[in-house]
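Aim 2, interim progress: modelling of the hexanoyl-coenzyme A-bound target.
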Amino acid sequence: MADNEKIQELVHREARIRAMGGPDRVARQHQLGKWTARERLDALLDAGTFQELGAHVVARVGEPAPADGVVTGVGQVAGRPVYVYAQDFTVVGGSLGEMHAQKIQAMQDLALKAGCPMIGLNDSGGARIQEGVDALSGYGAIFRRNTHASGVIPQITVIMGPSAGGAVYSPALTDLVVMVRGTAQMFITGPQVIRAVTGEQVTAEQLGGADAQLTKSGVAHFAVDDDRAALALTRELLARFPANNVEDPPRRPARPPRAVDLNGLVPNDPNKPYDVRRVIAGLVDDESFLECQAGYADNVVVGWAYVDGQPMGVIANQPRVLAGTLDIDGSDKLARFVRLCDAFNFPLLTLVDTPGYLPGTAQEYGGIIRHGAKVLYAYAEATVPKITVIVRKAYGGAYLAMCSRSLGADLAIAWPSAEIAVMGPEPAANIIYRRDLETAEDPAAARREKVAEYRERFANPYVAAARGYVDAVVEPAETRHALVRMLSSLLSKREARPSKKHGNVPL
Ligand code: HXC
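Predicted structure of the complex, ligand included:
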């Protein structure tokens, strides 16, 4: 009988915890188009796999709040374990106090020990005001754990409500940030503060909504329409990633690529653009390319794909945007993606068609030297298999930066349309044939002739192939086969770097 009472008490306590902020606050959450923490976990995890941990934790300050506003535990995604926390806005606004923070930290510690991904679902009013410095300190301890886990286990944050002030820094320290349009907002200082300090009028959505943080700042990697889409995307990302840095990303059944006329895709005129996504589609398994940060620095395209069932990270210049030049934002996007892939054992496929780094004072004053150096650093540092396909233009520093053989590509393919040279034919002809052009009777005709001569002598793949900087000149239509053969030969690659505390990436 006594035992039964104890069980009844447990049932009663669990019911109270499961009700979270109560029906009115849950109804308001739904009116805003948002799910509760538990509804979100149901959508994220395989049915029946969630084991809640820390449900009975309460704050030292104020009335005990169900789960202290954050549901934490372990569950499975596609049969593989993941640790999770989900803040619940219906309980004290999902605000983070000392014990709420300790619950998140406990999951971070377990995830790192077990070598499993860590997923955060954020919907919070930020530091719990009543808990003062204990709340702030809670954030600090989370940031430290985010940093220590970086590169060891995948960390994904899904922003599904407010995320303001210093609270934004845990997401920013994780590998991937997914945001929900209309409900997710990230900013350091909100619209009221901005209005008071600068007079600028801006709405919260304009300032830190999903599209702003995806396309303007590059803080977010994905923007989606609702909670359901955000959690489905997170499942897909988890299915593609290994559980940790000593596992390989899981293979999928191989599929042929989409039928794309690669031989006819790249225009003969080197100044004519085309969509590099079509080249990617013609090389990788059909429907397998998942683009990351689409909408930000679109002169560089990055994402994950499968090639004959083997996962790869794909990086490409996009000639349709800024002529495929590398600028500050594109360099940051590219370098961070390469480092993410290298950390989690995704071989790299780089498609090169770039006239160089973007010229201009805005770029120079903004530090294109420093940002561009990240690209070199990331590629040279990466130890995963690296295959480069030079599609068309590969000029100057950008040729080297885009995973050239000298920088560390294991194998480099060039298409017959490749132009590998110190600079483009027009400026090069102006410099090296200056005297001939000055004395020519018809300077325009002479320039055309000299440009053609330069192109034939220098701007082709055969000079580089003759020196061994290119391993094979391959017909575009045959490239998929060459890629599959080369990739399978590199999967056992092991490359060591000198032991060190850490490198000094040019941040
Ligand atoms: C305690 C909070 C809270 C907080 C919200 N609540 N934020 N309680 N600390 N930070 C409570 C509210 O009192 C309310 O309780 C419930 O959560 C819902 O909040 P509402 O204001 O009714 O919701 P809404 O109108 O949707 O507004 C959401 C909001 C607003 C914009 C997020 O709550 C807000 O401005 N909160 C404060 C945000 C903030 O400045 N946080 C500190 C950021 S600085 P009841 O009981 O009425 O339901 C920070 C520093 C971190 O986080 C530093 C790390 C280094």
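Residues 132-149 form the longest helix (18 residues). The mean pLDDT is 96.
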